């Protein structure tokens, strides 16, 4: 498996977006393309996202916290256990306490948090988190 670290200066990342809302997936994909990211993988299922994580080797993961088959924290645990070393952007409509707690748990798992945002994320927030 190829697990890339965060991209270097001037390098655009390979991004995996995980959200069970297809509208949100398309919106985030369009936003990522608007800021110049070309390698965008979208998944609505955590099972498929784990496969994509292994096969595509993204170095940025944008993850919703409220997912039907496995919540975002469980997914992040699985990603960390599989050796994901890229950066993570957490998105959720949940309150800030839940988002912040999820970020702390992700850090404990050894994941690098690039941002924690309330849905919907603004283009400038996404740009600053993805192109760090």
TrEMBL record:
PROSITE patterns named in the record: RESPONSE_REGULATORY
UniProtKB keywords: Phosphoprotein
In-chain residues carrying the UniProt-annotated modification 4-aspartylphosphate: 64
InterPro entries assigned to the protein according to its UniProt record, in alphabetical order: Bact_response_regulator (IPR050595), CheY-like_superfamily (IPR011006), Sig_transdc_resp-reg_receiver (IPR001789)
Pfam families membership: Response_reg
This protein's record includes keyword S-adenosyl-L-methionine: no
Domain Response regulatory: from-to ranges: 14-132
Record-given protein name: Response regulator
Organism, scientific name: Massilia suwonensis
